[in-house]
Amino acid sequence: MTQLDERLARGRAAANATPLAAHGIWEAPPDRPDPVSLLEAQDATREPDLVPVRHGRMLVSPFTFYRGTAKIMASDLAGTPVSGLDAQLCGDAHLSNFGLFASPERTLLFDLNDFDETLPGPFEYDVKRMAASFLIAGRNNEFSHADALAVAVESAAAYREAMAEFARMRTMDVWYARLDESELRNAVEGEESTKDKKVRKEFKAAEKTATKTAAKARTRDSTQALAKLGELVDGRYRIVSKPPLIVPERELKALYGFGPETVTAVVNEQFKAYRETLPDDRRQLLDRFRIVDTARKVVGVGSVGTRAFIVLLQGRDADDPLFLQIKEAMASVLEDHLPPSRYPRHGERVVRGQRMMQAASDIFLGWTTGLDVNRHYYWRQLRDMKGSAIIENMVPFGMSLYARICGWTLARAHARSGDPVAIAAYLGTSDAFDKAIGTFSRAYADQTEHDYRAFSAAIASGRLQAVEGI
Questions:
Q1: Short-list 148, 130, 198, CA closest to 407
Q2: What is the pLDDT of residues 302-337, one digit of tens each?
Q3: How far out from the chain centre does Cα 284 lie?
Q4: What's the count of helices (H) and strands (E) in the chain, helices before strands?
Q5: What kind and span of H or E run contains 295?
Q6: H/E element holding 255?
Q7: What pLDDT is recorded for position 181?
């Protein structure tokens, strides 16, 4: 038996042990942990003044609630059937954690863009997280039941078909596979033919939106960030103050008990340690910049309350800015249920996982241990031609197209670390897996709506505090 035969046999044996239909099962067990209690456990380690902001952002809709519930879903997935075929997981592969960014060659790429929860584990965990997010987003956009289910099934089908494609590729071709701007455009244009009049109109709208998103992404760099986040005072730039979302170092004493001089010393020390995690050529590039200012900056939904900062650096002159983002990396929510990371520092876990899963990664991606040795951070550019789809504006055709792109992207990310031959053999050529994931997504969307009502009730009763609109 050849090595290829062995890999095929492994996938088929997994299918016999865990049939594809098993992935369609979701029913909350009697001893399911209280979802609000799981959120409270996370809140205990977060910035107290930002926890109500996090709750307020999650309160907007079941869809925004789902974005902040990676811990809840990790607990739920731990009790579901698994194939036994592992890959490096994103850990939070909902549809808003895909997007555009610039490669080192300044080409726009579409890829996963959030790795706070990354960890090796069952490939189907990411597929279920992704597919359920599409169904919940479809409901949020008031799609019919059939259309909302269809986009979830489409994402799983695209994953399965892409994995079959990667299984036929040579190893290096899998590694080099990517979805750049031109390929993304081709993927969109490939959907135009044989459509009825209504769908052709939706196609044109989706094509226009994609073009605008890409054009906007190209403007999102450190210069644009400086115009939005900086202010010129006495001939020098500094970061603006917009508490609680942006709190510059000159105002951090109220939060952390030490003044700007201490903050500056800590940032400089952290910067030196971060620099050592970069390749030598990136260190030399970074040495051309000097730190100008630092601020705490709130980001996202699920991440709100973890410590996150931005650092403004200056190169040749004030018109040559570089913004770096520093994000706290806590233990992955998956580590409560899967073997812990082999990396002792969670910032390194995030960076290593991101480099494994992305087709190309930020040239300034690195990590540090905090002043408090129990806190870990990763560093990256704040804006490097980043762009994301506006999910709330999508119609069924546009979301279906987006689902296919995300499904392909997730499969490519898994194929880099997992065994695409075995996974493809497991998934097979029929639509059995797609239908099972659709069935799971529908049941889990119902569960999410139930959890959202419990979360809303906890806020209404005063058990949780929420600040809305920021």
A1: 130
A2: 899 899 999 999 999 989 999 999 999 999 999 999
A3: 30
A4: 18, 12
A5: strand 290-297
A6: helix 253-256
A7: 83
